[in-house]
Design goal:
This protein has 342 residues and is mostly beta strands. The protein has helices at 4-19, 33-45, 99-103; strands at residues 70-72, 80-86, 94-95, 109-120, 134-144, 158-160, 165-168, 182-184, 189-192, 206-208, 213-217, 229-231, 236-239, 253-255, 260-261, 276-278, 285-286, 300-302, 307-311, 331-333. The strands form 2 sheets. It has a 17-stranded mixed sheet that branches. A 3-stranded parallel sheet has the order 17-19-20, with no helix packed on it. The longest helix is centred in the N-terminal third of the chain and has 16 residues, at 4-19. One of its GO terms (biological process) is defense response.
Length: 342
């Protein structure tokens, strides 16, 4: 039988643990205590939104789908490596929870999306996520400059900050990331030029910077890139954007519309994989290359509002595009436009 003294001690211990909000973890719980503490702090920093009601300190954060948006490694020790924070209604404007960057060292995938009240900058402390591979902070209201410290995360494969209110220049230092496959900074307020250093990306396949305030000439160094998808539309960029074309490249989509580009389109090489080309509203000149007729995957073409001349090549899919796709050029003619003069 337990003595009265022991009962008294046990009672005091129980009161202490309760008042300190300590949780005695189950012996079978997989969730690392440090990770659980970090997640609960993140929930607090977000104002305890109802969307995180499943983040209950009495349950296992690594149990499959128990905590919304939380996933853990399943080999060795269980650690939170995947965090998805999406579609929240925050009680007031709040910054990105700092605990994400300081207390979840095993994150490899971070997805923050569609949180209109998420404001403020991306903190330099993001570099603490030394294992991060996939970084998405999209459709929110974050602002300020893109931190140079991103270049310290050598594991990064994808960076997507689209549809926010970011300002300032593109960080030159991003080109030092050895494994980067994709950059998407669409629909922000970025300014300045595309850095010359971006031509040194060795694995980049997707490069999208549309709907910003970028200006200046395209660096010739970008000719070294072999991009599957490039979208620089709706900026005030200028110069020779033919660097994105090439018969030996694997390019599928080129969207350069609504800029100030000027180059001879008749001299570009064409990737056999091209599916979409949008060059409208630029200062592109020359005649359309006959190689366009050989593109069997081409489903979109718009070269309107340029300085093109000559006859539209006959064949392939070129006559399937309507007149608006060729309209408002200096002297372009042939089907589906008016017939060329003899």
């Amino acid at each position: 039988m337990i003595s009265s003294t022991m009962q008294h001690l046990l009672l005091l211990l129980l009161i202490f643990l309760t008042t300190q909000h300590f949780i005695i973890p189950s012996l079978s719980e997989k969730c690392n205590p440090q990770d659980k503490k970090a997640l609960l702090q993140i929930k607090k920093e977000l104002g305890n939104p109802t969307e995180l009601s499943s983040w209950n300190p009495t349950t296992d954060c690594c149990e499959h789908r128990k905590w919304a948006g939380v996933f853990c490694t399943e080999t060795g020790t269980y650690r939170v490596d995947n965090l998805d924070l999406s579609d929240f209604n925050l009680p007031k404007p709040l910054p990105i929870p700092p605990s994400i960057f300081t207390n979840l060292p095993y994150l490899s995938f971070l997805y923050i999306s569609r949180i209109p009240n998420l404001v403020g900058p991306i903190p330099p402390s993001i570099s603490n996520l030394a294992k991060l591979k996939y970084l998405y902070i999209i459709h929110s209201s974050i602002s300020g400059e893109i931190p140079n410290t991103l270049s310290h995360i050598k594991t990064l494969l994808t960076i997507d900050f689209s549809h926010n209110k970011l300002t300032g220049p593109l960080p030159e230092s991003l080109s030092s990331l050895p494994n980067l496959l994709g950059i998407s900074f669409d629909d922000n307020q970025l300014t300045g030029t595309i850095p010359e250093s971006y031509g040194s990306f060795s694995k980049l396949t997707s490069f999208t910077l549309s709907t910003n305030r970028l200006s200046g000439k395209i660096p010739a160094s970008l000719a070294k890139l072999n991009l599957a998808f490039v979208d620089l539309s709706q900026n005030t960029l200028e110069g020779d954007a033919s660097v994105f074309f090439g018969s030996k490249k694997s390019t599928q989509k080129i969207w350069l519309d609504r800029n100030l580009f000027s180059f001879n389109i008749g001299k570009v090489g064409l990737s056999k994989n091209l599916e979409a080309i949008d060059l409208r509203n630029n200062k592109i000149y020359g005649t359309l290359p006959k190689g366009l007729t050989k593109l069997k995957y081409l489903s979109k073409l718009n070269v309107s509002n340029n300085d093109l001349c000559g006859e539209i090549p006959v064949g392939g899919k070129l006559q399937r595009f309507d007149e608006s796709c060729y309209a408002h050029n200096r002297c372009l003619c042939g089907s589906p436009l008016r017939a060329c003069k003899a």
